[in-house]
Design a protein that fits this description.
6-stranded parallel beta sheet; binds thiamine diphosphate
Length: about 575
C-alpha cells in the first residue's frame, strides 16, 4: 500500500475517478475536514485534468457549480467542509433537483466516533437534502485495506451514472457524504506523481463502471389535430428545438418562454396573446401541446384549464409537469422527432395566431418607442437587441442568463430573442444564487468556444448573491455583463395583487423592500467594473467587453404597474384589428 494516509488515498482516487467519468470542472469551498479533497483537486487542476474554482461562500459555490453544469451539460462536483457549510448548498440542490441538473455534492464529515457527542463543526449530514437528491451515499471512513479501491471507484461511477441520468433519463443532484479521519493533509513529501497499482483505475483510462441506456423505443406518430397550439417552457434545448421543428412541420403556432433556444422561434408577445380574449374567441386551440415546464405566465394555466382544450405534455424525462392537473396524455420526447406526418393544416387557425402576433409584436415595439425614460421592458429589449445585432459566427454563440423576477417576464413580452443559449433557474425560480449561476454558465460556455455572456437581473436578485463578486485573484473569470435593472426593490410585486392601491400603506415596507444600496460602491469594494447608464448610452454600454462587469439600469418602480396596464391595453386594441 501507499505511504499516503487513507483519507488522502481516497481523495486522490475519488477525483481521479470523477475525471475519468467526464468531470472537467470542480468547485471548492475551503475548510479543514475537506483538506484531503482540496489537495487532490489542486493537484488535478495543476496537472490540467480539471479546472478548479475556489469560492469562500458555500451558497455561491453551490450555484457556481450549478451554472457550470447548466452551461456545460456535464456533471460538476462542489466540495465543502462539514457543518453549516453543507446546509448552504441546499438552495442549489433544490434547483438542481427541479431543473434536472447533474450537481455532485461532496460534503466532508466527521468520522462516526466524533458524531452526536458535541464535537466541533458537526451536524447530522446523513440524507441532509432529503428527497431532493437522486442518490445519497454515506461512503464510510477510508481505510487502507484491500478492496477499498473498488468501493471508492464504483461509488464515484455510480454517483455520475445517477447524476447524469444515463440509465434513468432523469438527471439531477447526488450527495456523497465523506467521513474523513486524520491525517487530513498529505505526507510532507506531497502526493505521489501517480497512484500506486492497488489504487489504479481501469487500464483503458475510462470510468470504473459504464452505463448506457437501451435502444430507443419506437413511438407511434403523434396524431395531427390541426388546431394545436404548442407551448414550450423550461426544458433541454434539444427538446425545445425539436418542438419548433414539429410545429413548423404541422403548421401549429408556437409560443416559447425565453428560457430555452426555442425562444428565437416563438410568436412575439406570447403571454399577451394567451390572455387575449378576442384571439381566443376567433381561434381557440382544440389541443395544447406543452413541451417542458412553463412557469412564467398565469395565462398559460388559464388556457390549459379551459374545458375546450385537450392537453398533452412532453417532459424532458420521467417527471412531467402538470400544475393544473389537466394533462390527458404524457408523451415520450421521441414524438417530437417524428416530424413528417404531413397532417392536414388549418390555415385559418395558424394565420389568426400569426396575424395577432404580428399586431401584438408591433404594438409592443411602438409602445416602448413612445414611452419616455427607461423601464425594465426597455432594458430587456436592449439586451435582446444586443444579442441579435452584434455577434457573428466567429464570436461564438452568446449566452443569456435570465434572473427569476421581472427580467424574464419582460423578455417574454418584448422578445424576440435570437438563437442564443439561455440559462435560467426556472426549477424553483429562486432569486438566490443568480450571479453565481451566471458566472458558472459563462465560464463553462466560454471554455468551449462560446461568445459573450449577458445576465438580466433585478437589483434584489443581484444583491442576494453579492458574494458571487468576491472572486480570488487566481480564479478563472468569465466575460460576463450583469445587466442589473435597479428599481430599488421588488418591482414584480407592484404587478401582483399586493401592488393594488388598497394595500399601498403597507406595500413599501413588506413588498417593495428598498435597500438604497449604492451599487457602484458595492462593485468598487469587490473590484468589479460598474457603469450606470441612461436612455442615451444603454445600447452602447452593452457592446461586448472582456471581463466581469455590471451595467446598472436605473428605473422607477412606482411606474411599473400602470406601465403594464397601458401596454396590455395597447396590445389588446392592436390585435382587435
Ligand atoms: C430565494 C428567494 N426569496 C424570495 C423570493 C420571492 N421573490 C420573488 S421576486 C422577488 C423580488 C425580486 O426583486 P428584483 O430582483 O429587484 O427584481 P424586480 O422584480 O424588481 O425586477 C422576491 C423577493 C424568491 N423567488 N426567491
Ligand atoms: Mg428590483
Amino acid at each position: 500500500m501507499s505511504s499516503m494516509g487513507a483519507a488522502s488515498q481516497f481523495a486522490a482516487v475519488l477525483i481521479d475517478e470523477l475525471v475519468r467519468g467526464g468531470v472537467t470542472e470542480a468547485v471548492l469551498a475551503p475548510g479543514s475536514r475537506n483538506a484531503p479533497l482540496s489537495f487532490a483537486l489542486h493537484d488535478a487542476d495543476r496537472t490540467g485534468r480539471l479546472r478548479l474554482h475556489v469560492r469562500i461562500d458555500e451558497r455561491t459555490a453551490g450555484f457556481l457549480a450549478l451554472g457550470l453544469a447548466k452551461g456545460s451539460g456535464r456533471p460538476v462536483p462542489v466540495i465543502t467542509t462539514s457543518g453549516t457549510a453543507t446546509a448552504n448548498l441546499h438552495p442549489a440542490v433544490l434547483e438542481a433537483d427541479a431543473a434536472g441538473t447533474p450537481l455532485l455534492v461532496l460534503t466532508a464529515d466527521r468520522p462516526p466516533e466524533l458524531r452526536g457527542r458535541g464535537a466541533n463543526q458537526t451536524v447530522n449530514q446523513i440524507q441532509l437534502y432529503g428527497d431532493a437528491v437522486r442518490l445519497f451515499a454515506e461512503v464510510g471512513v477510508p481505510e487502507d485495506r484491500p478492496g477499498q479501491n473498488a468501493h471508492w471507484r464504483s461509488t464515484a461511477s455510480r454517483a455520475l451514472v445517477v447524476a447524469t441520468g444515463a440509465l434513468s433519463g432523469d438527471p439531477g443532484p447526488v450527495h456523497l457524504n465523506l467521513a474523513l479521519r486524520e491525517p487530513l493533509v498529505p505526507d510532507p513529501q506531497g502526493l505521489p506523481a501517480s497512484l500506486p497499482a492497488d489504487l489504479a483505475g481501469r487500464s483503458n483510462g475510462g470510468p470504473w463502471t459504464r452505463a448506457k441506456a437501451g435502444p430507443r423505443r419506437s413511438v407511434p406518430p403523434y396524431d395531427g389535430v390541426p388546431r394545436t397550439l404548442v407551448i414550450v417552457g423550461d426544458c433541454s434545448n434539444r427538446l425545445a428545438l425539436a418542438a419548433v421543428a414539429l410545429a413548423a412541420d404541422r403548421g401549429w403556432p408556437l409560443i416559447a418562454e425565453p428560457v430555452t433556444s426555442a425562444a428565437a422561434c416563438g410568436l412575439p408577445a406570447g403571454p399577451l396573446l394567451l390572455a387575449d380574449p378576442g384571439l381566443l374567441a376567433r381561434a381557440h386551440p382544440e389541443r395544447v401541446l406543452v413541451v417542458g415546464r412553463p412557469t412564467l405566465s398565469r395565462a398559460v394555466g388559464a388556457l390549459l384549464r379551459s374545458p375546450e382544450v385537450e392537453v398533452d405534455v412532453v417532459p424532458s424525462g420521467p417527471r412531467w409537469a402538470d400544475a393544473s392537473g389537466v394533462a390527458a396524455r404524457v408523451l415520450d420526447a421521441d414524438v417530437l422527432e417524428d416530424s413528417a406526418l404531413g397532417a392536414a393544416r388549418d390555415r385559418g387557425f395558424l394565420h389568426a395566431w400569426l396575424d395577432a402576433a404580428g399586431a401584438a409584436g408591433g404594438a409592443v415595439q411602438a409602445f416602448l418607442d413612445g414611452e419616455p425614460g427607461l423601464t425594465g421592458l426597455h432594458a430587456a429589449r436592449a439586451v435582446s437587441r444586443t444579442l441579435t445585432g452584434r455577434h457573428t459566427a466567429a464570436d461564438g454563440e452568446p449566452l443569456l442568463v435570465v434572473g427569476s423576477s421581472s427580467g424574464v417576464r419582460d423578455l417574454d413580452v418584448v422578445g424576440r430573442l435570437p438563437p442564443v443559449q439561455v440559462v435560467a433557474n426556472r426549477g424553483v425560480a429562486g432569486i438566490d444564487g443568480m450571479v453565481s449561476t451566471a458566472v458558472g454558465a459563462a465560464l463553462a460556455t466560454q471554455r468551449s468556444g462560446g461568445g459573450p455572456a449577458y445576465a438580466l437581473l433585478g437589483d434584489l436578485t443581484f444583491l442576494h448573491d453579492a458574494t458571487a463578486l468576491m472572486i480570488g485573484p487566481g480564479e478563472p473569470r468569465p466575460d460576463l455583463t450583469l445587466v442589473v435593472v435597479n428599481d430599488d426593490g421588488g418591482g414584480i410585486f407592484t404587478r401582483l395583487e399586493p401592488g393594488a392601491a388598497e394595500h399601498a400603506a403597507a406595500f413599501e415596507r413588506i413588498f417593495g423592500t428598498p435597500t438604497g444600496v449604492d451599487l457602484a460602491a458595492l462593485c468598487a469594494a469587490s473590484g468589479t467594473a460598474h457603469r450606470r447608464v441612461g436612455e442615451a448610452d444603454l445600447r452602447a454600454a452593452l457592446l461586448p467587453q472582456p471581463g466581469l462587469r455590471v451595467v446598472e439600469v436605473p428605473v422607477e418602480r412606482g411606474r411599473t404597474r400602470e406601465l403594464h396596464e397601458r401596454l396590455l391595453a395597447a396590445v389588446r386594441s392592436a390585435t382587435a384589428g
